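Ticket opened by: R.M.
Priority: normal
Category: complex prediction / small molecule

The reporter submitted a protein together with NAP and asked that the result be attached to this ticket for the collaborator who will pick it up next week. Submitted input follows.
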Amino acid sequence: MRAYRFDDPNSLDALRARDEPIPEPQRGEVLVKVRAVSLNYRDIALILGRYVWEAKPGLIPCSDAAGEIAAVGDGVTDFKPGDRVISIFHPRWFGGRPPAGAAMQTYGNGVDGWLAEYKTVSQEAVVRLPDGITWEEGATLPCAATTAWTALSGSVPIRAGNTVLTLGTGGVSIFAVQLARAMGARVIATTSSAAKAEYLRALGAEAVVNYAETAEWGSHIRKTVTGGTGVDCIVEVGGPATLSQSLRAVRPFGEIVLIGFLTAENPGIDYFALKGSNATLRSIAVGDRAALEDLVRAWQGSGLKPVIDRTFAFDEARAAFALLQAARHIGKVVIAVGG
Ligand SMILES: NC(=O)c1ccc[n+]([C@@H]2O[C@H](COP(=O)([O-])OP(=O)(O)OC[C@H]3O[C@@H](n4cnc5c(N)ncnc54)[C@H](OP(=O)(O)O)[C@@H]3O)[C@@H](O)[C@H]2O)c1
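Result attached by the on-call engineer:
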């Protein structure tokens, strides 16, 4: 089988496919014939040295895949050859509190990931993909969609009539727009691009603010867009350099869900802005297996379609990473695997 690895952990040019033996499923494991993989910002953050956790060099990248069970090991009862499945983001986090060390057991930084033609995993590390969802669509659900789902269904779940603020047009944010609208929430979004603003409006965002033109977008959203109220929930993917604006945009006792670190600058946190916001800050890590199962059910029921900017062939994997790094995409970038 062919599998991609980074010969140099710090360079996109060092991503190469090589021939490797097809792994054999051990007791309790399934062998998955991979059909599609989707990329997430963490897949390039690892190369750029911007990931929050350490990474082992030389691993197969990518956490998100859809595929078909090709064989099962002894003792596997949940799946049989031919079943359609998707990966779960944390291979050992099934519910409740995550096991110690879960962050270092994720794909691409702690263990081999999914950018290969075949992969063996525990039967607990995949969930069923319903027939109505294509391989490419299924491969977008494990990380970005589950993160958006966790963000909106937290300790204070989003309800119809709430206002959700999303930042930019990457994978997590576009899923958050779609899910928030499906829940009956109002969506305010930011982007740096006029063309992407049109797309956000077409998806149902009622107001879009260009964060490149309006540096004080947090106050603008609070004072002008929401008439002084502020937003109920912010899907915070920008991180260190956007948090101060998010603290201005959130309503008192609203929630800022800490998710991403897309911004490189790290100006620090103003304690008085943090305290004065009266907001709850909730830091999340994608979600557990149960969250992915809930998301798949909700997604299927909603009839929504993931926004896939482009699907690349397996041989074009490096170009797929380059598109994500250039941030020209809207939603998800996918790599089709096999025929
Ligand atoms: N903690 C978790 O559970 C978790 C889970 C998933 C992802 N993440 C993190 O969340 C972040 C988003 O991931 P992703 O895969 O959705 O990323 P992505 O698809 O690569 O998002 C790229 C987009 O982010 C937007 N962006 C960049 N800088 C921005 C800024 N200063 N303000 C607003 N938007 C900005 C841009 O949108 P425009 O072109 O429209 O401006 C860009 O196109 C990453 O940091 C990722 O590692 C965390």
